[in-house]
Every structure is written in structure tokens, then in C-alpha cells.
Amino acid sequence: MDTILHKFNEIVLKQGDAIALKERNRQLSFTELDNESNKVARYLIDNGFEKGGFVAIYLKRSVDTVVSLLGIIKAGGVYVSLDPSHPNERNSYIIEDINTSFIITNAGAEQNLSFLQHNPSMNILQLEKIYANKSADLFGDVNDRVEDPCYTIFTSGTTGKPKGTLIRQKGILNLVDYMQKDWQVNDQDRILQFATYSFDASVLDTFLSLLTGSMLYLIDDEERMAESNFLNVVKNEGITIIPVLPTVFFNRIVNHLTEENSDLFTSVKLVGVGGELLTGDLARKFKSFVGDKTRFFNLYGPTEITVMATAYEVPKDLSNDVYSVPIGKQLPGNKVYIVNEDGKQCEVNEVGELWVASVGISLGYLHNEEKTKEVFVQNPFDSNIYEGIVYKTGDLVKQLADGNIEFVSRKDTQVKIRGHRIEIAEIETKMNEIDGVNNAVVVVEKEEDDQILKAFFTSTDHIDHSSIIEILKADLPSYMLPAKLKQLEDIPFAPTGKVDRKALEKIEADRVSLMGSREIIAPRNKVESDLVAVWQKVLKIDSVSVNDNLFDIGGHSLKVIEILAHVKQTYPALTIKDFFDLKTIENLAEKVIKTSVNKEVEFNGEFTKLTEWPIMSIKEKVMPVNRVLVTGATGFLGSHIAKKLLDEGKEVVLLVRGENAEQRVYETMQKYFNCNMHSLITVISGDLTKQFLGLSKEVFTELANKIDAIIHSAADVRHFGNREHFEKVNVQGTKNIFELVSINSDITFHHISTVGVVQDLLIEGKWNDVKYMSEIPEDLQLDSVYTDTKMKAEKWILDQAKTGKQVFVYRMGNLAGRYSDGHFQSNIDENAFYRMLKLMILVNKAPNVQWMVDFTPIDFAADVVVKSALTAEHAVRVYHVCHPNPIPFAQFVSILNELDLSIEMVEKSFYEDYILSGNMSEEIKNLAVAQLDGDGANDTNAIFDSQQTMQLLKIEHLPKIEKEYIGKLIQYASEQQFIKVAVYA
């Protein structure tokens, strides 16, 4: 059997340039992954690491996690992934248990490792420093063996301490061999990585990708925060294999699917689910959407035998009599037994405990010989296979007549909550350690489509529930904290003398806040009072303080949408983003009140023209342009700007991140223009967020002296995220690329921004104060981190004019599909305007609002920017790139009706009530919340004025926003199966 590293090296030699790992803002080829992981291994060895030792990984799940674990294996080590979101005490215990002095982390996470500062022997290895090491040579092959331990996963333990399960390479190799053959996985597949790396499901997708040459996409927390985000990733990334999803999350996905959006699964050829009982109703519903084109597996397996022991492929015609979907039959490399209380193998349909013998069986639990001997026993049925050892799972199952196995229940108190396997006894142990608690019992309660923990305790004193939660939080991760608590006089017992857990499951308990002990601050105004009432209703809790963090008291993305659906009509200023940014009722209420106070004047039908501010004149001529550097050239706007420059006969240098930059440019040119790489294109792999763009100073200087102009189109345009990230990309990234102008002052700098800057100034009541200014004030700020960082970048760039630099700012309007053919960006489903359009088509209604709609075709926008960039004489430094003649929303709806879409205009209040009514589908409700969130048709007095821009640049041929063009936009959306209508202009 080949080892992990031997198989991986074969992949690198075969397809080193192929993408191995990808996340939202980063990707690595197999060669890059090989080199970076070599650096990790080299760094460990050089710092005294010895083969067979343990290395902790303290990182959020990311590309860096995979680089680290592969590097640890190359160094001959065993990786142990710690979840930074878990309590310090738990992570500290794990570090102590594995007896390691090596922890791999990064600058962002290292600051949370302060609990280890007392240990001077600890080697905290920062990835940034490791990557900076130019040497990626391991000085010879690593002699890994299939018998070598590879990783340790810590699961919940009955003693109150987690227990480490030690797994060898051969278990992984056996598992991947099965998946590669039966699932027909190849190097063209794109695999979705979902599970956290402290959870053994991560082994499935990660090593399947590394050892088959397929691409692994690591979905981040925001992308899996809501079902729509997750499905968008699946579609946009062309995911073909989803090895395993937690059953609870899969439940949410299936309930989100409709006939209209089931095409989001078009690329997926296989989905696996596991972790908890899969109901027949859920399986049948999913198969009804995907049919036979997507294979669907119910997977089962404990950590102790390397992730998976059985699998069941769900047929399209699953019988309506099936409630519990089988977990299937044993997989290659495994032998399963169902054993009764007498130690005999069960007959068909007889319930017994599942025992598993496996090539992937664990070496046992670290430093826990007693527990190891209890569950890893001599095989009484087949002593000559798999080292003669069998693992007793504690799961009660039965074999059906057709040979498949059906899960019945847990033999003990071990359960799965949100996909995490936990021992209820661990929680009970921690509760019993609390002063005053005499006895504690924890049970599981079914709540809608989820499971929650409910804890009961006895005490001679009254113990505040919040204090119990506060103490538990120090040792237990959030998924192990009881959601309900109740103090009893006595714990009920069954006739057998054991705790009557069935009786406890029927007793109602009090929902508690995961905030722990805190003062309840009552609402102090009507807004806070309204929000408290809605939070209590949606979260189903009696006590909410105005300073409670929504996400600490049971909130998540679905709850945010539900809350917003209740309050949006009353408080339209609140947005989805606000809940993630502001988190508490007092902060949300403050925003509502502040917006009400600062709002200029309620719209009365008089529109406000947002002109090209600030007014900055220019007299000097701009140097002739022959070679232009373009950033963001693989994006929608940047690619069209680059293509227009090429059409003008100009040489273009395209700055693209990653070593596969040329391939990305090639794919972009093919996608948007159906043409090959142009001889006038030079592609440079660089990173805007790094000094000298990640290039050497010599190469950076050489680049500066070769170009005449820069069109800076790259930016993070999402409206969600932390300020630090937006500052890094939108502000610091702009400063980094401007360093080219510092070297060569003849370079003209053209900065792409957004009309959202002036729109937010108007919304926040600041426009009248600044519209006549000749520069952006130093202390001016906007609430949105996106538009605020774009405005900061504008100010910094325009300030460079004071030092004699030639700089220009272009604020882009509502970029729409190409005027020539309606072609739009690939992620059409993320565009607010198209989502608004889809909603109106689905409900056949539109609100009667006063809105001058801007359509700026992408090819028209690119033409304006390039014409300006190639113009020698300018009168101003700020341009608005949007259509100078926006059309009334009513006219837009009228055009839609000319295209046979039958959209009825209704009063706004009626429209809002209608799209949120109870009989609407989940898809419509999701679109509706975004609509009410400001991403759609609303009364607005803003007109993005570009009259001066068009006049000064002598733009004579304007696109006609009429039936023919609108028809092209909708027809393209229909071809992409985003809008399911056929339109012929």
C-alpha cells in the first residue's frame, strides 16, 4: 500500500500546476501546496521536532490548516487540530495531553494563545515566518509508513475530559481508496470542505482531494452561514463532490430547495450526509429535487475506525414506509458485527450493539488505557483479521432483511449535537463539579429540526441558571452548553434503579442565555422595547437584555432573517448587515434613532442630483499612454477595461493573484469574450495587500518604469465583513499599488470607486454639507465599512494631486449586463438588482416607488473609463461613470410588461406585506428580506449625476435603455437558469 506522501508526490509530479486548494480569497496549486508544506516540515525539523511527535494546529479552518497538517505529516508527525473558538481550558488540556511543545498558528490567532505564556518551552510557530523561508527543500525523502500515526481527534469523554483517538495512515488510505473507486472521483472533481478540522469528518474531504488530484474548496463561516450562501458557493465553484454534510445542516439545505432553485445542485454528482439519524421524508424530498443525476449517501462511522464504516446509497424510489434511512453495509476494509447482550451475533431485525473490525482501527485513546481496554477488545468472531481487534461502538442497530443496517439509538448517553459527537456524561460531570450542585442529568430535546441539550439538577440552595452557564463556558464549547436548565427537588429514577431519562425528556425546562450571568437591562425607549419583543418571540426566550449579543443567546443567520422580517416595515433602516455588525438591541436601536434624526428630509418626490464631488480642477496635460497596468482584470469590470484597451491597440499588464494567474486570465477571456490570450497581454502574479505587491523590489521598480498608467479596479465589494479586512484590501491595497507612482511620477493613476460613496452621504444626511467642497474632509466617515473604505481610498488618492501626481477617480454606477448581448458576471445570483428582478417576476408584483433607475452597461462603463485614461487634457479629477439618463422605476416595470412578464405595480406597504406573507416559499422570503434590506426597489431621491462627465469626455453615443436592451438582460439571466422565463425583445 502506497503511503500518503508517496501518493501525494505522484499527484504533484502529474499535475503540479492544477489548483489543489481554494478559499474565497486564496488558492494554491499542488506545487505551491507541496512547497509551502515542505517549509512547514523543514521549520519543524530545524526546531528540534522528532518523528512520531505531536504538533497542534491552532487555526481557523483554511488553506493554511491543510498546508500545516501536510507539513506535519512530512516531518513524520501527528497533527492535532485545535478549534480557536473552543474554551482555552479545553485546548490547554489537549495540548498537555499530547505532550507537545509545537503549535502552528498565524498572526491573527496567536494573540489568543496567551494562556500558554506560562510555558517557556512551547514553540509557537507563526506561519507568516515559516512561509517567508525561501527554502522548501526537505533534503531527502521522508520515510513515512502506512503504520505511522497520522492524526488525533479529541472526542468527548465520560470523565469530563476529552479523549484523544490516535489514527494511522492506513485507515485514511483505505478510506480514500474506497471513495475514489466507488464514488468515481478523479482529478477533474471539485470537492467541498465543510467540517471543522477538530472534527473527523474533515479527513474525508481533505485527503480525498489531496490523494486524487481533485480541487478542495474550503468554505468559510460566512459562506455556510445561510443556505443561500452555501448553495451559491456550490453553483459558482462548480462543486461536484460534497463528501459529508452534518445531517442537521443538510436538513436546512433540503428545506431551502425549491423546484426553482434546485438547479443550484446541477454540478454536484455526489452528496454524503452523516452524524445523526437521517429520516426517510428528508431523503425522499432531496431525491425528488436532484433525481438520479446526484448520488446520495447516508454515511456512518465512529472516529475510532477512521471516519466511515458503512454507507448506504439512497435510491430515488425509497419506500414511503422507511422512517430511518439505513446506514448501509460494511465498506471495504471493515467487518461489522451486531452483538446482543449475551455476546452472540444477532438475527435479522434483532437489535444489538454494533462492533467494527477495521483496517483503520485506532491505536486507542491517549493516556487512557482503561477506556481503551473497555471498547477495543479481542475479536471473538474473527481473530485473524485487522490485528484481531474489534471496536465496540455503543450504537444500537439492527440488520434488515436486505442486509442493510438500520441505526436505532445510542447504547449510552453519547449523542450528536450540530454534527459534534459528545458524551452527555462529560457535561454532567462538569455540572456536578459546581459548588452547590448535588446531582445533574442532561437529556436531549427535539426542537423543530434541531436537537438541544436540557439539563436538570438538584441542590439544597437556589442556584442561578446564568451562573451555571458562566462556569460551564470556561470548559465546554458552545455546542455542549445546555440550552435549557431546571432545578428539581429530586431526579426521577426508573424501576431498574437508573435515571429515568424518558421522564426527564417530558419535563419542560427554562431556556437560558448562553451569555451566562449578567444584569438584565430593560428597554429604555420604544425601539428597544419593540426589538426585545421580537427577539423573545423568535428566539423563544423570556428574558432578553438590551446589551445581549444576539449570537450568544441562540441567534444565527436564519433567526436574523426571521427577526428582520418582523421589524423591517417598522424600522426600514435596519439591515441584515447591522445584526452581524451591531449584535445588540441597544446598538441596533441607536442606529434606528440616529438614522431618523440625521435623515435629511423624507422623500417628497424631489430628486437630488449627486454630482461629481469634490470639485477638483486640473490644468496640466496627461502624458501619452501606451502601456497600462490593470488590477482586478479577472473581474467583470476589470476584464472589460482590459479588453477595451487591447481593442485600442494598447499593451496591458494584468496584476493577478496566484501562480496560476495566466490560467485565470485565459479563463476570463474565454468566458467573457470567447477569445484566447492576446499578444499585447503581460500577466504578473502579485498581491495588492503586500509591500511591492509581493514582488521583489527590483521587479517592482522595473514594472514602475515600464508602464504609463494604472487603472486600479480591484477591490473587495462585499457589504459584509470586518473593517480590518476592508481596510487592508481597499485602502492599504490602493496605497501599495500607488508606490509604483512614487517610483515613476509620470504614471497616471485611475482609481475605480463607487457611487455608493455619495449615495451613503445622502442617506446619512451629510451630502449638503460636502457637495460644494474641493476636497474630502479628513474627519468624514460613513457607516458602511465598504463605502467608508472606498471613500478613504478616494481621499488618499486625490490628496496625491497636491504633490503633483496625476490622479483620477471614477465612481461606478449600477453595472448591468453588456449592451451588446446582455452578458453579465458569473455570480449573477449575488447581484442585488437581479435578485430584485427575480423576486418581482416570481410574485408578479412590484412596489409603486419613486426611483430613478440607473442602468450602466458594463461595456459602456469600460468605454468611458478607457476613453478618459487615453485623454490627454482633463478639466476635473472626479468622474461619475453611470448612465446620464436614468429611467423612472414605473417605466422600467412598463418595459417588463412589454416583454410579457405581467408585473402589477401595487402600493409599497401592500407589496411588503405580500412578499412576507406566510404562504410564500422560502426562496421568496429570502429574496424578500434582501428586498426590504435595501437591495431593491425603494423610494429614493438619489440621482447619480454624470452629465458633466459625459460632456467633458465628449461621450456622444449613449446606450438606449429600452425594451430591446432589458430583454437581453432577462434573456441572459434565463439562459443561466437564474430567472426561469423566456423573453424575446
Give your account of this protein's structure.
Belongs to the ATP-dependent AMP-binding enzyme family. This is Amino acid adenylation domain-containing protein. With 985 residues, the chain is an alpha/beta fold. Among the domains are: 169 residues, ANL, N-terminal domain (Rossmann fold), CATH 3.40.50; 98 residues, ANL, C-terminal domain (GMP Synthetase, Chain A, domain 3, 2-Layer Sandwich); 73 residues, ACP-like (Non-ribosomal Peptide Synthetase Peptidyl Carrier Protein, Chain A, Orthogonal Bundle); 349 residues, NAD(P)-binding Rossmann-like Domain (Rossmann fold, 3-Layer(aba) Sandwich). The chain is 35% helix and 20% strand. It is built from 33 helices and 41 strands. The protein has a 7-stranded parallel beta sheet with strand order 30-29-28-31-32-33-38, sandwiched between helices. A 5-stranded mixed beta sheet has the order 11-12-13-14-15. Strand 7 and strand 8 form a beta hairpin.
Overview in brief:
The protein is 35% helix and 20% strand. The chain is of the alpha/beta class and 985 residues long.
